[in-house]
Structures are given as C-alpha cells and as structure tokens.
Amino acid sequence: MGTLTYAGEGNHDPALLRAHLAEFFRKLRAGCGGTALAYAWVSEWHKTNHGLHAHFAVGRYIQRRIITAAWPHGFVHIKLLGDLPVGSTTLSEARVAANYLAKYVAKTFGEERDPLAGLHRYDVAEGFKPKQLHLTGTTSQDVVGQASAFLGAEPVTIWTSAEVEDWEAGPAVWAQWGR
Fold this sequence. Notes:
Layout: E1 2-6, H1 14-31, E2 39-45, E3 52-58, H2 64-70, E4 74-78, H3 90-106, E5 122-124, H4 140-151, E6 155-160, E7 173-177
Antiparallel strand pairs: 1-3, 1-4, 2-3, 2-5, 6-7
Helix pairs in contact: 1-2
C-alpha cells in the first residue's frame, strides 16, 4: 500500500494526475521486470489546498527504491498491511487492501460539489478487472440483500440518492462491504 503526493504547489488537475499515474505504473512494471503487475489506485483531494494525491495497492512486494524512482513528482509513503493474522491468504490480504482503498472511494461520494464527479474514482491494472456479478431485484434493498448473501456479510456503508435533496439523476445506491 502506498500514497503518492506532489511536491511544491501540488496538482489540482485530475487529468494530469491520471496521466502521471499511468506513467508511474508503466515505470513500476518495467522496474519489476516488465511482467504483468496487479494494482489498484484511488485519487483523493488533500484536506488542505494542496490538490490531489493517490493511494495505491500492488499485488506483490516491490522495493521502495523502485517505487520512489517511478514517482518523480513528489513524495512516496509506504504502508505495510501488518494487521493480518498468521496464515492469511492472498485473498484476505486483497480484501484488506480493497477495504483500505474503498474508504477513499467513498469519502466525497454524494457531496454537493464533488470535484471528481464524472470521473472514475479508482482504476485497476489492465487484465485485473474484477468480475462482474449481475443481480436483479424489485427493490434496491433486495439487490443489496442478494449481494450481502453472496459476500457473506452486511455492508458497512450504504449511500442512496434518496439522501440527496436535489438529486437530478435516476435513483442510485452505493454500498461498501468490509473485510
């Protein structure tokens, strides 16, 4: 797990961040021998006026020097997923990483003036897209219930467009399941 931030004035351009992230992951893959590399990233605005930064997770250990060399725009912070029990599987490691990134995806979701509205809040490496699960039901609660049964847990967060007073699009529901 890591965080990529900008030096100086920061970056306030979401398109530029995405271009820099594409460059970063190409360099990272090259630094790891050029083979396929599983990753996911989430962009986030700083609490201050410093602009954007990105949180990312990779599917394997990568030396810090390779990560730092791939991000020439500022600073790299690495976080070890250390709260896993002994004998954890790669699936449980992936779930912890996904839960970590999901909290950033959800942060500004539904805010009145979301500066990232209309943009993907996250992306994953080509060839590593999650499988789609198609569920149908008569209500959103029915579909969330089906998803909960499939995942074996209740969502830790649910947001609905009904909570937004002046929602102008069709009904929407977003749910997040924990580990």
